[in-house]
Amino acid sequence: MPEPDGSNLGGRKTIYDIARRAGVSPATVSRYLSNSTKVSPRLQQGIAGAIADLDYQPSQVARALAGRRSGIVALAVPNIENPRWAEIAHGLEVQLTGAGLSLVLVLISPAPGRERELELASLDRVYRMRAEALVVSMRTYKPGDFGRLQRAGTHVVSISNDIVDPTVDAVLPDRLTAVGLAIEHLA
Predict the structure, then answer these.
(1) Mean pLDDT of the chain
(2) pTM of the entire predicted model
(3) How far are the Cα atoms of 47, 66, 129, 130 from residue 62, in angstroms, in the given order?
(4) 102-106-111 Cα angle (round to 5)
């Protein structure tokens, strides 16, 4: 549990622990972690040593609260039992991990007659987690549903032809070329 000075005895280390070890202020550690040029090479070396000694890992949650990137990409999944979604999630996870980002699944449980309500609730969850991006493929999302997320800086990407919203980017398969190749193969 954090102490009054912000340190964390025995648990995960904080910038206060790094600052104490390096003999600098927490603000200097914060500037160092933000890649600021306002930290002298001598102090950078001391902070880097303290980080290594204490095995410090920055908290994505703390960064998001401080207004920085959350490192989170959300995938809205309508049916986790569908193997297609497992493949999509796996492909995203591989690519995002390589980019230093984390995938969070936002499950939308099938509930006949409540699909729209649950999809809108999923957007609220994504907003609260300060996700950097949301990948969607649901038919009942409507133009304008993503406005609050987009104003907050969350990029929305559709992987379905079903979402017709000019403010949403789409990544879609080239079905016309695929059909042409299939016909060519069969001929």
Answers:
(1) 84
(2) 0.66
(3) 19, 6, 12, 11
(4) 170
